[in-house]
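During the second half of the funding period, the structural biology subgroup turned its attention to how the target accommodates small molecules. The most pressing case was adenosine-5'-diphosphate, which had performed well in the primary screen but for which no bound structure existed. We therefore specified the complex as follows and requested a full 3D prediction, including the ligand pose.
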Amino acid sequence: MSYNEVTTGASQREPGKSDVQPLVLRNVSKAYRSSRNRKPLVKAVESVSFTVEPGRCVGLVGASGSGKSTIAKMVTGTERPDSGEILLGDLEIGKLRSRGLTTLYKRVQMVFQDPYGALNPVHTIEYTLGRPSMNHLGCSAAEAKRRTMELLMRVGLTPPHQFLAKLPHQLSGGQRQRVVIARALAAEPELLVADEPVSMLDVSLRAGILRLLADLQREHGLSMLYITHDLLSARIITDELLVLNQGKIVERGETAKVLQHPQDPYTVKLIDALPALGVGEEEAG
Ligand code: ADP
Ligand code: MG
């Protein structure tokens, strides 16, 4: 995969975006139990602690099954931790119930891996993108439509009016993922959680979607938790890296530093698997 055109990830907070709060995880654990016996079967996430500072893009990198999506689900309120704290500013995400969850959905939005499954097949793009503006921001139908056009342009779906009446199946995979990103932005969240957002897309589309995510994150001054098994993509858009192995964070730090001087053997293994980042190569395409 080529990421040549992708802009680098150093993000800056936009003036006036001081309402973005840090995401803090403290000793968060989650085990999945089988339905038959009550014993913990899989320790999916074990005592994980990290912070996503406002306006930063933090990469959560690890192999399949390392617990990445479980962390994404807990941060977005669809799973609850067994123990530990998850805070967005003062909001205790790990303890939210229904009404609190509505508040959370305005502040934290998710971009899913599968752009096919993420959109309701019977809803037009206008409906899908207009709803969050009405529900979360209290826009009128006319305002919501104007915002929808703006969002479509922002994610590169132009001219926007050509997309309003379309259904998801009438769009390509890349266009759908752009709609998913636009929907995530519609509520003006503080934090975007992107769980393998390009891994199901055609290789030729990945760089464009990554660049879009990085640009939007910077422009909007929001924070991002970028989840991937692909160190190469993380290298391009993240400020910091967390390396997850079997539910535990084994390494963390500024992205460039971790990649140049990995401390944990597991990180070394991940880096060695990338030919472009092999010893002596600082800047590979
Ligand atoms: P990743 O996203 O890094 O691939 P996951 O967070 O999806 O990892 O999964 C971590 C571990 O937890 C895996 O061993 C997985 O099989 C297990 N797991 C995830 N969700 C469930 C579930 N709902 N029930 C039982 N086990 C689960
Ligand atoms: Mg996953």
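Two results from this model are relevant to the next phase. The chain has one domain: 3-272. Residues 32, 42, 44, 62, 64-70 surround adenosine-5'-diphosphate (ligand 1) (CB under 6 Å).
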